[in-house]
Design brief:
By secondary structure, this protein is an alpha+beta fold. Helix content is 23%, strand content 35%. The strands form 2 sheets. The chain has a 4-stranded antiparallel β-sheet with strand order 3-4-5-6. Strands 1-2 form a two-stranded antiparallel sheet. A hairpin with a 5-residue loop joins strand 5 and strand 6.
Length: 95
Amino acid sequence: MRIRCPHCGERDNGEFSYLGDAAPVRPDGMDAEAAAMHDYVYLRDNPAGAIRELWYHGAGCRGWLVVTRDTRTHEIRDVAAARDVALARRKGEAA
C-alpha cells in the first residue's frame, strides 16, 4: 500500500505508523465524565468500507495525516494534513 503524503509525495506505508479511527473527539479530561472517557478509549467501530484514519509519517516529514481508506480493498481515497482537518473542524464548530 502506498500513501501520498501532502508534504513528501507518494511513499510506502512502511514509513508510516497507524493510530486508528480519526473520527472520535477526545473529551476534555478535566471536565469529562468517567463514562465518556471510557467510551473514547475503549469503544470503537470497525466498519467495512471508507473510514478516516490517523497515520504518522515518522520516516518522513513527521507529520500527522488523515487518510480516507476503504477497509475492504485498502484503496486510499484521500490524504490530508491532520492539522488542516482539525482547523476545518474548529471553523465548522464556530459557525
